[in-house]
Design a protein that fits this description.
- InterPro entries: Methyltransf_25, SAM-dependent_MTases_sf.
- GO terms for molecular function: methyltransferase activity.
- Keywords: Methyltransferase, S-adenosyl-L-methionine, Transferase.
- The chain has 9 helices and 7 strands, in the order αααβαβαβαβαβααββ.
- It has a 7-stranded mixed β-sheet, sandwiched between helices.
- The longest helix has 13 residues.
- It is α/β, with parallel strands linked by helices.
- The protein has a single domain, classed as Vaccinia Virus protein VP39 (Rossmann fold).
- The protein binds S-adenosylmethionine.
- The site of S-adenosylmethionine has 21 residues, from strand 2.
- The site of S-adenosylmethionine (SAM) has 21 residues, from strand 2.
Length: 247
């Protein structure tokens, strides 16, 4: 007989287990799926290009976030945004589940002679405070949050609470609900019934404002569409949001 629920973490792990194993893209168990995704660096995946998100570049250009400082790139993949932050003078911690992504990001950092990025391979929500304790002036997430199942928002908000400095900024890009067709619009409860996340969850501005209501909103808008020749990455099927932790 199993009586194995005692803590919030026990509940979160139980809920993780309600999803089919092939749906897992958010725990160490999902790392091999991402390793396969990143194996061929020449695949025509838009965010494989070594260019930063247009919204991140814009926050810096407009002085909405100050540099330099300490930044965390959450779910950094091949490191395109971490590299941009390092080039702007940030000391960056960049974390990803996939060792294949981290190896690619490290290659890019070597080529760019970016020595101010510390890469971490593992589950951002399971790493110790020594590894990812912050406090960070900026926590940036492009495309990781929307891969988490609903209950893992608890872990996500816990990480922001522990690691974001007072007055620091949190910014994310995630699938937009609506006409884009990117991201599932099933209600949270229905996802558990289906045991699937359908490649990621779509969000509305209202849902993002509610989830991150502990922070002050600075800007929430669609990502601008950037042409293939642009030095910036931009896809309009994503929301971009910038929040600030009250000082
Ligand atoms: C859509 S990709 C985006 C990669 C990168 N941010 C970019 O935009 O180029 C999402 C990334 O989140 C990572 N990820 C998902 N869950 C994670 C977790 N719990 N801890 C660390 N990384 C995670 C995946 O390994 C994947 O590389």
């Amino acid at each position: 007989m199993d009586r194995n629920i005692r803590t919030v973490d026990d509940v979160l792990r139980l809920l993780d287990g309600l999803f089919a194993p092939e749906a897992d893209r958010w725990t160490d168990g999902g790392a091999s799926w991402w390793d396969g995704f990143y194996t061929d660096r020449s695949r025509p995946v838009p965010f494989f290009a070594a260019k930063p998100d247009e919204n991140l570049a814009s926050y810096l250009d407009r002085g909405l976030i100050a540099s330099p400082g300490r930044a965390l790139d959450l779910g950094c993949g091949p490191g395109r945004n971490a590299l941009h932050l390092a080039a702007q003078g940030f000391e960056v911690d960049a974390v990803d589940l996939s060792s294949t992504a981290i190896a690619w990001a490290e290659d890019r950092a070597r080529e760019a002679k970016a020595s101010s990025i510390r890469f971490h391979c593992g589950d951002a929500f399971a790493l110790t405070d020594e590894q990812l304790g912050g406090p960070y002036d900026l926590i940036y997430d492009s495309g990781c949050f929307h891969h988490l199942p609903p209950h893992r928002r608890v872990s996500y908000l816990g990480l922001l609470d522990r690691a974001l400095a007072p007055g620091g900024h949190f910014a994310l890009a995630c699938f937009a609900a609506g006409e884009s067709g990117m991201g599932s619009e099933l209600p949270d409860a229905a996802l558990y019934g289906e045991a699937a996340l359908h490649g990621g969850l779509a969000y509305t501005p209202k849902s993002l404002r509610w989830i991150f209501s502990g922070l002050e909103e600075v800007e929430l808008r669609r990502m601008h569409d950037e042409s293939p020749g642009s030095p910036l990455f931009g896809e309009p099927f994503l929301w971009t949001a910038l929040f600030r932790r009250r000082g």
